[in-house]
Specification:
Strands 10-9-8-13-11-12 form a 6-stranded mixed beta sheet, sandwiched between helices. The protein has a 4-stranded parallel beta sheet with strand order 2-1-6-7, with helices on both faces. The protein has a 3-stranded antiparallel beta sheet with strand order 4-3-5, covered by helices on one side. The chain is 38% helix and 25% strand. The longest helix has 14 residues. Helix 10 links the parallel strand 11 and strand 12. It has 11 helices and 13 strands. The radius of gyration is 18 Å and the shape is globular. Helix 3 packs across helix 4, helix 5 packs antiparallel against helix 6 and helix 9 crosses helix 10.
């Protein structure tokens, strides 16, 4: 059985991995001052984050259309795929997977849509696991996704609560952290929910807390250091981890400036990680 893999651009997978595994990536939509951009086209991530604090109208995001999904489904099936796994961002935070499911209805029994319960490389690592198992059949792919999700940790330190509050997608438990916008909220993403794990007052405290949480993960199968245009902080995090870690680390550690479609809701100058443990 030949399995095709589809995801959306919030997976943040580097282009070389997308190409290597022949993954179809559907761009999500960024709306800046009334103009729509396909994710990654027309404005770079660096430019977006630099301009983000000064936009007169707060940016918004939108899911791709049904047609944006039917096109890659048709392409993969025409190329001889027997089945398609279409895996997307957490349904609690976006409608992307629901739109994919509507598109999948046009291909009965040919497309399985999966809610990853995550974002960025938390989604991307599930997509990658699926792609690596695709030659072994549908059940192997599904098992790989479930296994990866069980071993996944996604944690971040944001520079401010402002953008989460503005997005309207912040749950009450997180909002309680934001009495003062000057705090640095610590959050994790579990089964599609943004959960607070504390707050600190300074950037240096946030960096040390993230490092501590990362070092506690133990031996890792996969690791991504993620940031929202905070490259120097993220590099320092990686360097500090490598100098202190006492166990083996993944050979290919990803270093990613998070897509603007996610960064719209997180704000600039944040750092975090997505890690897949070797074992539960």
């Amino acid at each position: 059985m030949k399995i095709g893999i589809v995801t959306d651009s919030t997976s943040d997978l580097p282009a070389y991995l997308v190409e290597e595994h022949q993954i179809q990536v559907v761009p999500t939509i960024l709306v800046l001052e009334g103009k729509e951009y396909s994710d990654g086209i027309g404005i770079t991530r660096e430019e977006f984050y630099t301009r983000l604090p000064s936009f007169q109208t707060p940016p918004t995001t939108a899911a791709p259309s049904i047609g944006d999904f039917t096109a890659p489904y048709e392409t993969l099936l025409s190329q001889g795929c027997d089945h398609i796994i279409s895996i997307h961002s957490a349904s609690q935070l976006t409608t992307i997977v629901n739109v994919a499911r509507q598109a999948a209805n046009e291909f009965p029994d040919k497309v399985t849509c999966i809610d990853s319960g995550s974002l960025s490389l938390g989604l991307g690592f599930q997509v990658l696991a699926a792609a690596e198992e695709s030659e072994y059949g549908l059940q192997s792919v599904l098992n790989a996704i479930v296994s990866t999700r069980k071993r996944l940790q996604v944690t971040a330190a944001l520079d401010t609560m402002e953008y989460l509050k503005r997005s309207g997608r912040v749950p009450g438990a997180v909002a309680t952290l934001g009495g003062l916008l000057s705090i640095k909220p610590m959050i994790e993403l579990i089964d599609g929910e943004v959960k607070p794990i504390g707050a600190v007052r300074t950037t240096s405290q946030a960096d040390e807390r993230i490092l501590s949480l990362l070092l506690k993960q133990g031996e890792l199968q996969r690791l991504a250091i993620m940031h929202t245009n905070a490259e120097l902080r993220a590099k320092k995090l990686l360097d500090e981890m490598m100098s202190r870690v006492r166990q083996s680390v993944p050979r290919d550690i990803l270093f990613v400036n998070v897509t603007a479609v996610i960064g719209t809701h997180l704000g600039p100058n944040g750092i975090g990680f997505a890690a897949v443990k070797n074992n539960l």
